[in-house]
């Protein structure tokens, strides 16, 4: 189910933002304009379905730290709201601070409201609705059913469905959100697992931090687009080649480069080279996700790599929807050229993240 529209309210620098998503959407802007906040807001929907919403927000300092800190209407509650419209379903999640007495978990989110709509033509029907600790949903026969147990306040109702066969629409929505993939930071320090041989298993989806890079590359070479993988390496690093090896179940890789008499081990490669290989593994996955989000993939990359990266992202968009944030206008231009991307420029106005006037494309 493609993502048709995204809306965010009250999250970090985003006071209120709403825009449609294309098969390839590129959010572009300078450092500090709020690109990563838009990316993270999308990721919150994934962690909510996963059952790790509270942990995800804790890593950002807890719910009070991520709420919009600018002015709000007098008496208006401090809320974080994220919503998406898919093909025929829409979902909105709204969180606030834990009500008193807070106890030891005062930094947890308190899910105030959740709503799931089914779109039929121009009409929409509420198929599930949550208000604080209670919720109802339409079951498989269309009957309004109240959840029997009190819900955990810090997690989405999607993560607390105990009878998915009774609530097929909620189950389908949760399954779709769980299939989304996010890549923001690939760890490349000297102790990073991706620089060392690792016990490997078939890995059709690269881990979010790239720790299983060798296994992911080996999987592409074995059951995926092996020609595309090696051609992409040659395109990005002319005259170079990727060598994969497996010894007693431990996977590793190295690069042969022109002018050198021996290949370079992963431990010797530059941060930029390793990050580009991680992007290759993510974009050439033998099991592509329906929605792939990349946050500033150009980090540590030489400008000469942005054109081949744009072609790779364009190719990946033929297998699933892609969302990219970047401050590199060269990458945005490449994606416009190769993928017909919708480019949405962001800027700050009074501390709030906003779209540049006239930048929102018309919806189908």
TrEMBL record:
Domain (ATPase AAA-type core) ranges: 24-327
A Pfam entry, by short name: AAA_21
SUPFAM superfamilies referenced in this protein's UniProt entry, alphabetically: P-loop containing nucleoside triphosphate hydrolases
Protein name as it appears in the record: AAA family ATPase
UniProt lineage: Bacteria, Pseudomonadati, Myxococcota, Myxococcia, Myxococcales
């Amino acid at each position: 189910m493609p993502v048709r529209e995204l809306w965010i309210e009250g999250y970090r620098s985003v006071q209120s933002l709403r825009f449609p998503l294309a098969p390839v959407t590129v959010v572009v802007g300078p450092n500090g304009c709020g690109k990563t906040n838009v990316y993270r807001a999308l990721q919150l929907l994934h962690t909510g379905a996963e059952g790790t919403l509270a942990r995800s927000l804790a890593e950002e300092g807890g719910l009070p730290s991520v709420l919009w800190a600018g002015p709000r209407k007098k008496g208006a509650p401090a809320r974080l709201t994220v919503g998406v419209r898919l093909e025929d379903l829409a979902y909105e999640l709204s969180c606030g601070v834990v009500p008193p007495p807070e106890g030891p978990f005062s930094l947890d989110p308190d899910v105030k409201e959740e709503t799931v709509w089914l779109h039929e033509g121009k009409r929409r029907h509420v198929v599930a609705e949550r208000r604080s600790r209670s919720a109802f949903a339409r079951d498989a026969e269309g009957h309004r059913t109240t959840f029997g147990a009190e819900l955990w306040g810090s997690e989405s109702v999607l993560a607390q469905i105990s009878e998915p066969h009774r609530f097929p629409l909620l189950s389908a929505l949760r399954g779709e959100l769980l299939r989304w993939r996010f890549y923001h930071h690939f760890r490349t320090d000297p102790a990073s697992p991706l620089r060392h041989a690792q016990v490997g298993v078939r890995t059709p989806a690269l881990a979010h931090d790239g720790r299983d890079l060798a296994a992911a590359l080996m999987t592409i070479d074995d059951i995926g687009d092996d020609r595309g993988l090696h051609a992409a390496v040659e395109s990005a690093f002319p005259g170079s080649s990727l060598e994969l090896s497996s010894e007693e179940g431990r996977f590793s890789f190295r690069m042969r480069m022109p002018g050198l008499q021996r290949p370079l081990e992963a431990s010797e490669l530059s941060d930029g080279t390793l990050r580009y290989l991680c992007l290759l593994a993510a974009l050439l996955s033998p099991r592509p996700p329906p929605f792939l989000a990349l946050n500033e993939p150009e980090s540590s990359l030489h400008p000469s790599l942005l054109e081949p990266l744009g072609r790779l992202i364009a190719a990946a968009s033929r297998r699933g929807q892609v969302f990219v944030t970047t401050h590199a206008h060269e990458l945005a231009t490449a994606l416009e050229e190769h993928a017909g991307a919708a480019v949405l420029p962001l800027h700050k106005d009074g501390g709030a993240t906003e779209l540049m006037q006239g930048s929102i494309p018309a919806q189908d």
